[in-house]
Design goal:
This protein is α+β, with helices and mostly antiparallel strands and 180 residues long. The protein is built from 8 helices and 5 strands. Strands 1, 2, 3, 4 and 5 form a 5-stranded antiparallel sheet that branches.
Length: 180
């Protein structure tokens, strides 16, 4: 299964690789390893992601903030979760988008220099008890009603914009606007 790697802002010299896992049986163990720093990446509830572009915008924003020494959270990995949220509350953002014991479908986000990708693939293979699936299957795991509720997207807005554009607009402008 090929990984999905995309270059981020050229100034950052960073790349973002996404890995999607289904039917994960050890979310609690993975969460503990993330908190303890044993696994260095962002792990997101796949149900809250409508499109990989949605995540790449948050990852790019995190990489740029890191490059400028302007992280709002403690590290690059939590910054991705924070940037996915429309909330300016860090704890709420991490709880909302981070995984919990019951999450079975997860999206892993690794921000890295181009030559530092391989070790993460091996770490994930050893630590995640689940099925690695193609990132193209991400929409199958999206909970559209939960996404609309999380991002406060109403029916009226959906008549003039698609879900991805509405979400990307919110996370891109979070620093400047207050969502209703």
């Amino acid at each position: 299964m090929d990984d999905y790697t995309v270059p981020l802002d050229p100034e950052t010299e960073m790349f973002c690789t996404l890995y999607l896992f289904a039917n994960v049986q050890n979310s609690d163990e993975i969460y503990k390893k993330i908190v303890n720093g044993e696994i260095c990446c962002s792990i997101i509830k796949a149900a809250l992601i409508v499109d990989s572009f949605h995540v790449l915008v948050a990852a790019n924003k995190a990489a740029v903030n890191a490059k400028m020494n302007q992280l709002i959270t403690k590290n690059l990995h939590t910054e991705v979760l924070f940037n996915l949220s429309i909330s300016k509350n860090i704890s709420r953002s991490l709880m909302e988008f981070g995984i919990n014991d019951t999450d079975k479908n997860i999206l892993i986000v690794q921000i890295h220099k181009i030559n530092n990708k391989e070790p993460m693939s091996e770490i994930l293979r050893k630590n995640i008890k689940g099925e690695k699936v193609s990132i193209s299957e991400l929409p199958q795991f999206s909970d559209l009603e939960l996404i609309k509720k999380t991002y406060k997207i109403d029916k009226e807005e959906q008549t003039v914009s698609n879900l991805t554009n509405s979400i990307v607009s919110r996370i891109s402008c979070k620093d400047f606007i207050l969502v209703k």
